[in-house]
Amino acid sequence: MSQIIGILSYEEGYREKPYRDTEGFPTVACGIKIGPKGADLANYVFTVPKKVGDIWLQVFVDSVITQCRANPLIYAALQQCNPARADIIYSMAYQMGVAGLASFRNTLVMISNGNFTGGSSGMLQSLWAKQTPKRAQRHAEVMRTGTYDIYKGLI
Known about the structure:
The chain is mainly α. The protein has a single domain, classed as Lysozyme, CATH 1.10.530. 59% of the residues lie in helices and 8% in strands. It contains eight helices and three strands; from the N terminus they run αβββααααααα. The chain has a three-stranded antiparallel sheet with strand order 1-2-3. A hairpin with a 2-residue loop joins strand 2 (26-29) and strand 3 (32-33). The longest helix has 21 residues, at 50-70. The radius of gyration is 16 Å and the shape is globular.
């Protein structure tokens, strides 16, 4: 059974009030961008209660899943994935966008060939892994093992 909401909740954290993410975008709730890069946070004077944010997150995740399935390269990788590995693909797409994930061409091809160790290594050799090293390590471990073990006690 998918654990994508728990994974994203852990990885993204939760903030009721708008904040600027590490890339400079106004963001709220569970990492949801709400405006253009550099926009003044004073333009966003509201709070998003966790219960509302959780529903909003599910809507965004559903959209990411649909977009991933519409991309032939990502879909081919998903066809080889159990739920844990698929959740990692969806988490990466949520974080960097489907186009960003699609740029992991060699990694996705390895995954679509059932080479999860190679896919895991490819993930760790990316700029993404340099930018979010702990998240990348956890994601690569799930891709390698096909289990949620690294998230036990966290989600």
